């Protein structure tokens, strides 16, 4: 069993490479935009991409998870048909959606509060969405075929081409904001062409209606669920602004972004987890395997939570090239970071628990689960922010993801019961909570050498507690040692 989990860890790391490199390259382009584009242009770009995030859910309408679910079981049609039905469906609808956006771009610009003179940005957005939707199934097929390296390479290639085109179009041709959208469009087109080999090898025009009906039934609930999920990620920003001011929102936004460390881990895990559990769903020990994965995920996530929470104040005060990571005005917002990290831990739990909904094709419950989280997020923000400021916004996010994880657990267990190792999970959570409370009580000074030593001792104590409490038993340690020796010999 451990060899399967280690393979999951390996693929998570490979998917993570593309995610980390992508985030890094996107981060590097931010100061470029800040220096060569006007603030108003950056505002329009940000506004359009916010709408693109929502529209992408509609363009894809759940075809990716539906494809992964049905190609893993082959209960209807063959492998080519399971690839071609969702791909051809996306091809037709994406073209129609993009054409409609192109023709009605001026009207859409008015509705979205964008200057009609910039309606070409809306047109670019429509075709970007079209091309990105057309790569959804080919990328999913790479994940299902466990071709993580090729998946990561194509993702990195897309981001690199996009970055280089941004530099060429904006600096070389002086295209400004239009260059941003054209660069994205060309990069998306390049990626689609690079994946044509995957498409051609698996494409067939046999179109079983029964399979398409089942795929739609599985995928369509992802539209309301996806829209609610995106809304939950961004709804706290306008509420914080409405209840406080722009400066407070700025402090909240920048400190919230420090939760990206956990978000990256969960995103990497999600890329590998879905094809993993679909591949092993029919194994005799599948349920025990899924339970063990959850235990190890919590162990890893809580370790990352403690490391970042203990050292985050040191990080924001560190100097890089003579300047501090965050100016002092932002330090007051660091208190939200641990709660944002915990929110992403519960997001990871939600990802693990979705296995029952996937395997038993009960996606109709997704909108109710995500909708409940989104409604709680809005209500809690209005209650907590006036009382405890931006900490209330962070706690609202945490509460909403806790509700989503709990809702997904209850829904999945109804149809596919997994006996998770709750005793071990509680031991991990309890040990992490104790270490975190001790750290807060000690009130260590940031960047103090003695404080760094104490923090190191606390992390070691957490690891030792997992062994002492038998979360990690001697048998598992010996199995890991044997596998490491085999890998070293190779």
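Q: What amino acid sequence fits the structure above?
A:
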């Amino acid at each position: 069993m451990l060899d399967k989990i280690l393979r999951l860890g390996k693929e998570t790391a490979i998917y993570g490479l593309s995610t980390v490199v992508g985030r890094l390259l996107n981060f590097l382009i931010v100061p470029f935009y800040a220096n060569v584009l006007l603030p108003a242009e950056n505002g329009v770009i940000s506004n359009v991409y916010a709408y693109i995030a929502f529209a992408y859910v509609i363009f894809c309408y759940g075809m990716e998870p539906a494809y992964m679910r049905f190609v893993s079981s082959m209960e209807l049609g063959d492998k080519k048909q399971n690839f071609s039905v969702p791909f051809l469906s996306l091809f037709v609808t994406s073209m129609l959606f993009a054409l409609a956006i192109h023709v009605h771009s001026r009207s859409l610009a008015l509705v979205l509060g964008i200057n009609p003179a910039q309606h070409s940005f809306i047109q670019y957005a429509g075709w970007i969405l079209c091309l990105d939707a057309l790569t959804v199934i080919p990328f999913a097929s790479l994940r299902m075929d466990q071709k993580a390296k090729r998946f990561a390479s194509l993702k990195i290639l897309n981001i690199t081409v996009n970055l280089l085109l941004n530099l060429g179009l904006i600096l070389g041709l002086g295209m400004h904001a239009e260059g941003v959208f054209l660069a994205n469009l060309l990069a998306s087109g390049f990626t689609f062409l690079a994946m044509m080999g995957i498409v051609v090898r698996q494409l067939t025009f046999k179109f079983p209606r029964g399979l398409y009906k089942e795929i739609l039934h599985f995928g369509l609930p992802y539209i309301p669920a996806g829209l609610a999920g995106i809304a939950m990620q961004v709804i706290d920003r306008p509420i914080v602004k409405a209840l406080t001011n722009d400066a407070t929102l700025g402090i909240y936004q920048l400190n919230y972004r420090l939760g990206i460390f956990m978000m990256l881990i969960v995103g990497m895990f999600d890329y590998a987890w879905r094809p993993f559990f679909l591949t092993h769903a029919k194994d005799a020990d599948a349920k025990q395997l899924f339970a063990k994965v959850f235990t190890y995920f919590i162990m890893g996530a809580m370790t990352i939570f403690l490391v970042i929470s203990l050292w985050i104040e040191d990080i924001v005060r560190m100097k890089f090239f003579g300047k501090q990571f965050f100016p002092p005005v932002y330090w007051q917002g660091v208190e939200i970071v641990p709660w944002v990290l915990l929110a992403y831990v519960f997001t990871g739990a939600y990802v693990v628990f979705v296995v029952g909904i996937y395997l038993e094709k009960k996606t109709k419950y997704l909108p109710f689960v995500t909708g409940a989280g989104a409604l709680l997020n809005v209500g809690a923000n209005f209650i907590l922010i006036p009382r405890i400021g931006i900490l209330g916004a962070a706690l609202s996010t945490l509460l909403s993801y806790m509700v989503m994880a709990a809702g997904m657990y209850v829904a999945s267990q109804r149809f596919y019961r997994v006996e998770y190792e709750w005793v071990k999970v509680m031991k991990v959570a309890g040990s992490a909570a104790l270490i975190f409370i001790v750290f807060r009580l000690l009130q260590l000074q940031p960047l103090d050498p003695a404080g760094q030593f104490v923090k190191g001792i606390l992390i070691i104590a957490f690891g030792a507690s997992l062994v002492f409490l038998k979360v990690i038993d001697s048998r598992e340690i010996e199995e890991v040692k044997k596998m490491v020796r085999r890998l070293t010999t190779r």
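Q: And what stands out in the fold?
A: The longest strand covers residues 319-320.
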